[in-house]
Structure formats: C-alpha cells, structure tokens
C-alpha cells in the first residue's frame, strides 16, 4: 500500500493549555508525526498558550522533551525535530484575564485558517471564546476545537453550546471525541457502506445482538477528584460508547459529509429507549494487596460513583427493534481492549445436526490493541473424521493487511487536527447530538440517585461484577472474553 498524504494550506494553530498533559502527550507528538509525514506546509505556525512564564525557546524545549518522552517512535535523525520546533512559538496568556491577548492577536497571521484548540479545563471554554471575539480573532476563518467533557449534564451542555454560539457559528465548532478519529471506526463506515455484503444483513432480522466493550486496566489514579464527580457513564458512555453505537446503528447517510452523517447519528440517539434499572450494572473495583480500591483512590469511603458500567440498550426503530446492544466499560479490568462485536443469528436450520455444535458469524471491530477487523466464518475442520465445524477468523488486521505502511497510519488526534485544518466536521460531534446524548443519560443517572443505588464491587483484573455476566446470561448470551 502507498500511503497518501494530502497537503493542507498554511495555517495557524493555537493550543490553549499548550503546556498541559494532553498537549504534551497527544497533540504535539501527533503534530510532529504529521510534520514528518510531509503534511505540514512550510509557513504553518503553532503557538502554545498558557499562564506559565516562558519564551519561545523555553516552549520549544518543553515540546522537544514531550516528543522524546511521549512520541511512539525514536525521534528521526536529520534535523526533523529542529525543523518542526522552528515553527513553534509561545504566548503567555491568562484565559480569565487580559494578559497576553494583544500579543497573541499580533502573532496571528491575517487571511488564513486559524484553529484554536481548547486543551484546558471546560470551565475556561467560555472565557476563551469570549476573549477570542474581544481581541478580534474570531473571524470567519477561525475554528475552535473543544475537548471533552462537553458539559456535565443536559443543562450545562446547553449552557456551553449557548456561550460558544455567541461568538462562533456551529460550522466553526469542532467538539472532539478522539474515538471517532480511530482508523477502525472510520473503517466501520467503509465496511458497512462500501460493500454490498454487510448492509442487507445489518438489521434485527439477521443480527442477534451487538456488544461494545471498552476495558481499561488502569484505575482512576491521580484523576480521582475529577472522576468521582463523573463516573463511567459521564466519562465514557455518554460520549465514546454512544458515538460508537451511533456509527454501528445509523442508517446509511446520503453522503459522507458532516451533516448527512451527523443527522443519521442524531436519529439513533433520539431513538434510544429509556433503560430499565435491571438492565444496568454498576461497579467499583476492589482493593488488592498491592493497589487501592476505587473508594481509596477517590478518597471517599462512601462514594457511589461507578468505575464500571454494563447496560442493555434498545433502539426503537424498524432496523433494530428486538436486537439488544450491550455496552460495557470499566477501569481495572482484565485487559486494555476496545472492541465492537456484531453477533449474527444462527443459520435458520443446521443440516449438520446437533453434534456440529452452535456456530455463528461474528464481525469484530477492534479499536485497540491492534486496530483491525475480523469476521468469524464457519468452515469444515480440515482432515478426515466426518463433518466437524470450526469458526475461523477472516483477519483484516491493518498491520498485516497494509504492510509496513500501517505504522504510518495517523493516530486519532493527528487525523482529527488535520480535519480541523481542512474544515471537515464529519468526525466531530454537533451541538444537538451532544445535547441529545445528555437528554438520554440524565434520567438514568437521576434514577440511581433516587434509588440510592450502590455499585457492586468487583475484583481488580476481572471482567467486572458478577451481575454484569448475568445481564447476558439471563438472555442466553455471553460477553466476549476481555483479553488483550
Ligand atoms: P492539564 O494538564 O491540567 O493542563 C491544563 C492546561 O491549561 C495547562 O497548560 C495550564 O497551563 C493551562 N491553563 C490552566 N488555567 C489557565 C488559564 N487561566 N489560562 C490559560 N491557560 C490555563 O489538563 P489536561 O489533562 O491537558 O486536559 C486539558 C483538557 O483536555 C481538559 O478539558 C481535559 O478534560 C481534556 N482531556 C484530557 C485528556 C488527557 O489525556 N489529559 C484526555 C481527554 C480530554 P498553566 O497552568 O501554565 O496556565
């Protein structure tokens, strides 16, 4: 495969929070990779902005350290890093005050795309939008990139949308969900809508159920304070898992264009049924000999926030009536893995008899590790001894299928930042989508509070609370194993 790099026009990118964790771990190493791939034009300018006192050289050193520490490969020789750093600058800016804003506006180039990445806490989003407007940087060429969390509930999300809308048109607002930037997630759309094979079967008549699992091995660690106010529902389900659900369940959009795709995703969210309390299992990880449990991590012995969530969800429309979607996510689980499994129904009649066992086609879309897809197909086990059936995977692991170039596939952040520069909103969430997602999750969360729901504990390194296994067993189904 030959990787194709489509150049972009010169741009200015300002990273508010340019000294923070996200900028150092993801955004800046990602930009360097795009630079190495030849996608960054000569005149592109990247400006870090934060309150810390620093000059341009100081910032370049910070970015050099970040790329050396967090880049996924050794820095290439030949001066690429120096050439990249030469495009970087820094302005000391206080989002809530007046410091630095005149200087920032002087540094911005006239008449070109300017992207402002809000890589700061959400409480500063409104201040940044306001000041960009006040200091004349909110032109028609401007785009803002907004990180998660986008609100804490429907009310706060609406308020945030309203603040941003005062100064920016919806076409200028890029609400980022890095799951949508993953190669496999986009490939899901290619597989669904680029082949005739799947779409006729992609409905309740042929699909028994769908499982979405996002499992982490880490606990909440140093983010306990934030996490305990949020929990798995707000931190993972309302955004990432819902976005995945939408892409699996949506009708074919007329075009692969922002509003066509986002209209279809919105219809899915609006068709979600309220979830029965007994279709939800919440959990908190237990302490081990070596590591603290959830409640110790968040320093609240009475915390009722979930670090694990499993739920059975139904979509009320013609395509999916009767086909459940099982969603599951949690911390301190057996392995770090994210996947979607589309489990098809049994063949209507087995000509091989009961002894051939039960065999099903399963399409597995793996987001991590080893991004790729496999389709389990039933074949005859080779060799003599009668007709024994076995399921073998048709493997579309990108690293194998694409050869050495698979390494060059941009990661989610790189791809999404370049989409911002190109002005392509297809893989970003629209304001009404985010609000609809909160409108569905809010009553579920309110129900837990009203019922004084206490999460079940689960062993660190397990697949979650026993009850989450029962959620499937009761329906005669089984979760796929959580394994790396
Ligand atoms: P962080 O490490 O705390 O960084 C915050 C950044 O904001 C720092 O550069 C800080 O620099 C700057 N800042 C704080 N107050 C400021 C102010 N008044 N004016 C200007 N700059 C200010 O946070 P983070 O982890 O990078 O997260 C940033 C955003 O991304 C958050 O919304 C977070 O929820 C989201 N996010 C993060 C991750 C991640 O992996 N870290 C993942 C997904 C989403 P100074 O102190 O020098 O001002």
TrEMBL record:
E.C. numbers:
1.1.1.49
Active site residues per record: 240 (proton acceptor)
Q: Where does substrate bind?
A: 178, 182, 216, 235, 331
Q: Which domain of life is it from?
A: Bacteria
Keywords, alphabetical = Carbohydrate metabolism, Glucose metabolism, NADP, Oxidoreductase
Q: Does the keyword Transcription regulation apply?
A: no
Question: Could you tell me which HAMAP family the record lists for this protein?
Answer: G6PD
What family, per the record?
Answer: Belongs to the glucose-6-phosphate dehydrogenase family.
What the protein does comes down to:
Catalyzes the oxidation of glucose 6-phosphate to 6-phosphogluconolactone.
Q: What is this protein called?
A: Glucose-6-phosphate 1-dehydrogenase
Q: Which organism is it from?
A: Thalassococcus profundi
């Amino acid at each position: 495969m030959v990787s194709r790099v489509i150049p972009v026009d010169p741009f200015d990118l300002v990273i508010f929070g340019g000294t923070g964790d996200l900028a150092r771990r993801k955004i800046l190493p990602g930009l360097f990779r795009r630079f190495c791939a030849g996608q960054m034009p000569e005149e592109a300018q990247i400006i870090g902005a934060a309150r810390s006192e620093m000059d341009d050289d100081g910032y370049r050193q910070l970015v050099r350290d970040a790329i050396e520490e967090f880049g996924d490969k050794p820095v290439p020789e030949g001066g690429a890093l120096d050439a990249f750093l030469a495009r970087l600058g820094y302005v000391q800016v206080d989002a809530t005050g007046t410091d630095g804003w005149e200087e920032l506006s002087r540094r911005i180039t006239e008449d070109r795309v300017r992207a402002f990445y809000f890589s700061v806490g959400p409480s500063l989003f409104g201040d940044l939008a306001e000041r960009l407007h006040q200091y004349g940087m909110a032109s028609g060429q401007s785009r803002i990139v907004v990180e998660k969390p986008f609100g804490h509930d429907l009310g706060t999300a609406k308020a945030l949308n309203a603040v941003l809308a005062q100064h920016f048109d919806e076409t200028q607002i890029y609400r980022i969900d890095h799951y949508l930037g993953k190669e496999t997630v986009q490939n899901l759309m290619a597989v669904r809508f680029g082949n005739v094979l799947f779409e006729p079967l992609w409905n309740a008549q042929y699909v028994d159920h769908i499982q979405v699992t996002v499992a982490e091995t880490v606990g909440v660690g140093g983010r306990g304070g934030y996490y305990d106010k949020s929990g798995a529902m707000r931190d993972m389900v309302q955004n990432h898992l819902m976005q995945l659900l939408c892409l699996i369940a949506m009708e074919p959009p007329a075009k692969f264009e922002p509003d066509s795709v986002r209209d279809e995703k919105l219809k899915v969210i609006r068709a979600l049924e309220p979830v029965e309390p007994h279709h939800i299992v919440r959990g908190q990880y237990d302490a081990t000999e070596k590591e603290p449990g959830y409640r110790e991590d968040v320093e609240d012995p009475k915390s009722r926030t979930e670090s694990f969530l499993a739920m059975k969800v139904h979509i009320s429309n013609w395509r999916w009536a009767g086909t459940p979607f099982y969603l599951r996510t949690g911390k301190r689980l057996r392995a770090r893995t994210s996947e979607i499994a589309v489990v098809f129904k049994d063949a209507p009649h087995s000509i091989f008899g009961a002894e051939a066992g039960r065999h099903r086609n399963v399409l597995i879309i793996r987001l991590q590790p080893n991004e790729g897809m496999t389709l389990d197909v039933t074949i005859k086990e080779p060799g003599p001894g009668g007709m024994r059936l076995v399921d073998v995977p048709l493997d579309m692991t990108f690293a194998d299928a694409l050869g050495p170039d698979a390494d060059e596939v941009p990661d989610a952040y790189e791809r999404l930042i370049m989409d911002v520069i190109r002005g392509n909103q297809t893989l970003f969430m629209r304001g009404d989508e985010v609000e609809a997602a909160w409108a569905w999750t809010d009553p579920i969360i309110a129900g837990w509070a009203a019922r004084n729901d206490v999460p079940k504990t689960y062993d660190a390194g397990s697949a979650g609370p026993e009850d989450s296994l029962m959620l499937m067993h009761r329906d005669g189904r089984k979760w796929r194993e959580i394994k790396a």
